[in-house]
Write a structure and sequence with these properties.
- It is a single chain.
- The chain has 1196 residues and is an alpha/beta fold.
- Helix content is 42%, strand content 9%.
- It folds into five domains: 2-79 and 370-434, no CATH class; 83-286 and 297-364, no CATH class; 441-644, no CATH class; 687-750 and 1071-1191, no CATH class; 836-1032, P-loop containing nucleotide triphosphate hydrolases (Rossmann fold, 3-Layer(aba) Sandwich).
- The protein has a six-stranded parallel β-sheet with strand order 15-14-16-17-13-18.
- α14 (372-391) crosses α15 (397-405) and α30 packs across α31.
- Residues 865-1038 form the DNA helicase Pif1-like DEAD-box helicase domain.
């Protein structure tokens, strides 16, 4: 068998070498190799030892020739290198793989090996003898072992996994797989495989879905827990003296399904406890790649691993399955019972992790056992022998043979010497006939030559014969007429297949002899030299569709890219080079000439054209193109994935932007020419693209709504689910002032008016509201066109009115020269009702304020008051800051008070700001650089600070607020006073209401190792004065409902309470009484769906149109090529997501609809995040890209 294997290798390698030297350019290749010197080879060896690239083109040519010979030899290192290209081809076709499995069938114990070897055993009477026979058979019959391995792998892929069969297997609906066979230390076979699950392309958004949809996350965890086990059932006994049964339980016995399932579970756990547990003493392979440095002796398999009590989803959306055993490898119950040997099953959860793991897999699974260093070393030794033979005098027989063979067989002798030194097991020899199928191969360098020859025929083509790419299997010359490659076949494919892209052509079309042609085959173009002898056959079934793989370099700069640590760069030249490949693959060639001709002056013509063309491609081609670009990203994502785990920062620039931070003069020049027609001005999206994208988004919305309605029937109850989407034509995207009427609520205004409004808002945000200023602002608004007849002005009613000013003056006149806290409370109580306990609280705080009025920051003359006010909802906590604010206003000390809350809505309730705005705290809680001068000025005269909704405040945030107050007040951090030495600090809230978003609540223990939590707890413990308000004010007129709320607060609802609540459940969101009601949704996805349903219903009931505004996308500075490409439907389908995406991709508007503000605009007049109101109209920016369209709805 070994002799036959060696003869087969020598025969095949000789044939490959014979074909190689028959090429037209071989003479120049021979001369090049003959000119190689020993010094050149030694320099190349040194470069490889130092992990540098070989730059010498002659040596690279030699290595290429050796690989060309080895490619045709079964089981050679070059055939293993081809596996990487095939794996990449499957990634391009199917997207990201879902699972990575390792299979290691036990040939020593499986009875199938004996059957294949023709050996029969007489029962289990002689157990020891039978075991010896099994071991002897497995070690002496490699053919039987190879066949056994093949049958096991086939059974797993076709039976258990049901790969590409249309049936659901043990891992779900598997669309494809790719397995690579390797050998272990004793020469036995094992297999590593990538598994693709149908629908894998959605994994790009998997992490986001897991984070946002709790139900989906629970389903994913349930799915993974059924197929990947990271523990064992401790109730299954383990007796080391009892042999493991060779076969799984049989279903032949009479038993119920549950009983049989219990037996299977028992058996799989028994196998796992015997075969899946990693040795606590480890193995040699655990430290195979160990670095000989102190502290580097950890097991490369990560054993023992941390226990995970229960499955969880971390803050990045990664699922962590439960683990109750630190030394066990992940296993699958079906694989355990069927294989009865060790295996591994791993889930690839996220895109970033997928790219990292794919890069690792393609380098590990497709690794070669002959390195470039070995090839160069062999060549150096052989060259040395040739040089000695030339000068030998007299020559020996060996010298004579070397002289006679010459340079023609130099590469062949290099390969044969390498193959001769290679260790091969008997099972490997036998398994050469079980090779994996090959896929169609395309070389990208030749694709470039065809594209350039067609688009730039005046430029000379590359004819270098010494370059690394000159001797590919597919040859090309500009003047050839006879087709010698697939490129020529595509070029002359004929009019019937003219619409096919080159990538589609490679997947779907094959050339067939005319004698075997059918009526459905297609003719080539008449200029094709084989027009009379061959036809083109289109794939008729999925099995005929080929997977396209790429041989060669993806970009001509790849050698330079690989030399840069940290991943592939994304320079303009590289992006342009990749775009050239993508254009050649996914745009019909006859269209390229016309397209590229429009951009002849562009420096990076291909990347420019690709950015325009890509959004217009068919969806499947766009997916293929995206997958091709992922291949370049793999190395980069592998290295960036570790950083992703430790960095979850968000951009501060989009957080809590206040109008006071805007700079004047940042507006466009004034223009009164607003009567023109405003057309689409986007350079990326045409009107047709926007319309097509809207219909795609609309269909996605409809699908989401249908799915959600299964859980929330009230969402669709009463709607016309079958209503068709209206047809929109491009003219509906162009509007002028003549085409817009008052009923639509959309208007144009001059730029000067808009700039004036902007300045007014900034003035309101920065002006103190005293009487004279209020009257001045009020009168100035009446003299210009600030309201513009849109609901009688949305800002004017929020200003201080004259009667309120007079009332304030009257109250101040009643104070006298020396007001007391009691007199202040009495006066304030006339406007703000206070119960007895509220009056005592207000009086205590005002007494403090009066006592240190002349020396508020002298800590030696007053004590800092840290007060906590709590109580259930409706007990009047918010009345206290209102009363104190009114009292301090009477004292003309209103500016000393700072009102803060965690959210804009909560801050609006008490008339304050978020503490992010007030203290300049970013969303990631980090302070970059010095504190803004705006913040320092704001805190100059503050003496009393309220923080409402303390239940939403976590320990770390309390510490951060304290630190920022210290900086804002310029107080030394060593001071014993907290919060910058403010005399009074008051926390308000109810701990049974909303909890913190991030860290532990104030009453919880700090997280282990978190210093900020510890500091926050220390600060919280300083609040020793606590006042609990217990008199219910809000529900005082409804004692029955108050009793229900009290029992709900104590988790003691009665059946009668439940029945009462059920009577309040709505059957439809579209009931008349629900028109202006506020809906509270648990998930943002449901919020968006409710809003869309309500807007449509609102417009239909009023016979109004809905205006749909597409958002304008601003490119971000990035080196990631996929983020610089715009996809209309992907962008426009994005909902608002807080600071990350401040506005939705499509904004729906109809006149007078209820609305809520999602960002802080002007806190002084209540325009903050969470403020609600009515959409009175929309003003279009005359200098912007005013593109929108109307959706006409017929009334029901």
């Amino acid at each position: 068998m070994y002799l036959a294997y060696d003869m087969l290798q020598l025969r095949t390698s000789s044939l490959a070498n014979g074909l190689l030297i028959q090429r037209q350019k071989w003479k120049s290749t021979t001369d090049d190799i003959a000119d190689l010197t020993e010094d050149q080879l030694l320099d190349a060896l040194k470069a490889l030892e130092e992990h540098r690239k070989i730059e010498d083109p002659l040596i690279r040519r030699l290595l290429h020739d050796v690989e060309s010979i080895a490619t045709r030899v079964p089981g050679s290192f070059a055939q293993k290198l081809k596996l990487r290209a095939e794996i990449r081809g499957l990634i391009i076709r199917y997207g990201m793989p879902a699972f990575w499995i390792t299979i290691n069938p036990s040939d020593l114990r499986n009875p199938l090996v004996l059957i294949l070897a023709g050996v029969q055993l007489s029962g289990d009477v002689f157990a020891a003898a039978n075991s010896a026979i099994r071991e002897t058979t497995a070690t002496s019959n490699p053919v039987a072992v190879a066949e056994f391995f093949h049958h096991v792998c086939k059974a797993i892929f076709e039976g258990l996994l049901a790969s590409n069969t249309g049936h659901v297997g043990i891992l779900g609906d598997v669309s494809n797989h790719y397995g690579v066979v390797e050998t272990n230390g004793r020469g036995m076979l094992h297999l590593h495989a990538l598994i693709w699950v149908r629908g894998n392309l959605r994994f790009r958004t998997l992490r986001k879905r897991v984070l946002e949809d709790a139900a989906f996350a629970a389903s994913m965890i349930s799915y993974l827990e059924k197929i990947i086990i990271q523990g064992v059932d401790e109730n299954v006994p383990l007796d080391p003296e009892v042999n493991l049964p060779p076969m799984p339980p049989s279903a032949r016995d009479v038993q119920s399904d549950s009983e049989f399932h219990l037996r299977l579970s028992y058996d799989s756990n028994l196998v796992a406890r015997r075969k899946q547990v990693h040795s606590k003493h480890h193995f040699a392979t655990c430290f195979k790649y160990r670095v000989n440095n102190p502290g580097k002796d950890s097991c490369r398999f990560g054993m023992p691993r941390d226990l995970v009590p229960s499955p969880r989803v971390d803050q990045l959306g990664v699922i962590h399955l439960a683990r109750n055993h630190a030394w066990i490898n992940p296993w699958n119950p079906a694989l355990a019972s069927c294989l009865r040997s060790n295996h591994d099953v791993s889930w690839i959860p996220t895109v970033a992790k997928s790219l990292s793991l794919i890069y690792y897999i393609t380098n590990y699974a497709a690794k070669d056992d002959v390195s470039p260093w070995q090839m160069v070393a062999k060549a150096a030794l052989l060259k040395q022998s040739l040089e000695k033979a030339k000068v030998a005098d007299p020559p020996t027989e060996a010298d004579q043979r070397l002289r006679e063979r010459g340079m023609n067989n130099f590469a062949l002798r290099c390969f044969n010497s390498l193959a001769h030194d290679r260790e091969v097991s008997g099972v490997q020899v036998a398994s050469t006939l079980l090779h994996l199928p090959s896929y169609y191969s395309v070389n990208l360098w030749w694709l470039r030559q065809y594209i350039r020859a067609m688009t730039h025929p005046q430029q000379p083509q590359t004819q270098s014969v010494s370059g690394p790419l000159g001797e590919e299997a597919c040859t090309y010359k500009a003047g050839d007429t006879a087709p010698v490659s697939l490129f020529d076949n595509y070029k002359w494919r004929g009019r019937h297949l003219a619409s096919f892209t080159f990538f589609e052509y490679c997947m779907l079309v094959r050339m067939r002899d005319k004698q075997r042609a059918t009526a459905t085959d297609f003719d080539f173009d008449s200029v094709h030299p084989r027009y009379t002898t061959h036809k083109q056959r289109l794939a008729q079934k999925p099995a005929h569709v080929a997977t396209v793989t790429f041989k060669g370099l993806l970009t001509q700069f790849q050698t330079a890219e690989d030399s840069i640590s940290g991943g592939h760069p994304a320079t303009e030249a590289i992006l342009n080079d990749v775009a050239e490949i993508l254009l050649g693959l996914f745009v019909p060639w006859h269209d390229l000439f016309a397209i590229l001709g429009q951009f002849t002056t562009e420096e990076n013509i291909y990347s420019t054209v690709w950015a325009i063309v890509e959004p217009t491609l068919a969806p499947h081609n766009r997916e293929f193109a995206a997958n091709i670009e992922l291949l370049r990203k793999s190395k980069e994502d592998c290295q960036a994935d570790a950083k992703l785990r430790t960095s979850a920062r968000l951009d501060d620039d989009f957080f809590d932007r206040h109008i006071a931070d805007l700079e004047e003069g940042s507006f466009d020049s004034e223009s009164d020419e607003h009567d023109e027609v405003f057309q689409i001005q986007s350079e990326d999206f045409t009107a047709e693209t926007l319309i097509a994208a809207y219909h795609t988004v609309r269909q996605a919305w409809s699908r989401e709504l249908t799915i959600t309605a299964h859980r929330i029937p009230a969402l669709l109850q009463g709607t016309a689910q079958g209503r068709n989407m209206p047809h929109i034509n491009p003219r509906q995207l162009a509007f002028s002032t003549a085409s817009i009427n008052d009923a639509l609520g959309v208007r144009f205004l001059a730029t000067s008016v808009l700039q004036n409004w902007e300045r007014r808002l900034k003035c309101l945000a920065s002006t103190k509201e005293d009487a004279s200023t209020a009257e001045e602002l009020n009168s100035s608004f009446q003299l210009d066109d600030f309201d513009q007849d849109i609901g009688q002005g949305v800002l004017q009613p929020m200003l201080v009115e004259s009667d309120v000013v007079h009332s304030l003056q009257d109250r101040r006149s009643q104070l006298g020269e020396n007001p007391t806290a009691a007199s202040l409370v009495s006066l304030v109580g006339q406007d703000i009702p206070l119960n007895k306990k509220q009056q005592l609280v207000v009086m205590k705080i005002l007494s403090e304020a009066l006592a240190w009025a002349d020396h508020p920051y002298d800590s030696s003359r007053r004590k800092q008051l840290l007060l906590c006010i709590t109580g259930e909802g409706g007990t009047g906590k918010s009345q206290i800051p209102k009363a104190i604010l009114a009292a301090m206003d009477l004292l003309e000390r209103k500016d000393e008070i700072m009102l803060m809350a965690p959210t804009g809505a909560a801050a609006d309730t008490i008339g304050g700001n978020t503490y992010h705005t007030s203290l300049g705290i970013s969303i990631n809680r980090l302070r970059k650089g010095a504190m803004a001068s705006r913040v320092r000025r704001l805190w100059t005269q503050k003496t009393i600070m309220f923080i409402d909704e303390m239940s939403m405040l976590d320990l770390t945030m309390l510490s951060v607020i304290n630190n920022h107050c210290m900086i804002a007040r310029s107080l030394d951090r060593s001071s014993p006073d907290l919060f910058g030495g403010l005399p009074v600090v008051i926390l308000m809230g109810d701990f049974l209401q909303f909890p913190p978003v991030r860290g532990p609540a104030l009453w919880k223990e700090p997280r282990e190792g978190n210093d900020e939590d510890v500091n926050g707890q220390m600060i919280w413990h300083r609040f020793k004065q606590v006042i609990i308000l217990d008199e219910q004010m809000r529900q005082s007129d409804d004692p029955s409902f108050y009793g229900l709320l009290t029992r709900a607060r104590r988790a003691a609802l009665t059946q009668r309470d439940v029945e009462r609540l059920n009577t309040k459940v709505i059957s439809s969101l579209l009931e008349p009484r629900m028109e202006c009601a506020t809906a509270i949704a648990k998930l943002n996805s449901v919020r968006h769906q409710i809003n869309r349903v309500q807007i449509e219903h609102f417009a239909i009931t009023r016979s109004q149109s809905i205006c749909i505004f597409p958002a304008e996308h601003s490119r971000i500075k990035t080196t990631n090529p996929t983020k610089t490409r715009l996809r209309a439907e992907d962008l426009l389908q994005q909902p608002d997501q807080g600071t990350k995406i401040p506005f939705p991709g499509l904004f729906l508007y109809t006149r007078d609809m209820p609305a809520v503000i999602l960002t802080n605009i002007c806190s002084r007049i209540g325009h903050v995040n969470g403020a609600i109101g009515t959409m009175a109209g929309v003003v279009l920016d005359p200098t912007g890209k005013s593109s929108f369209f109307r959706k006409y709805l017929a009334p029901t």
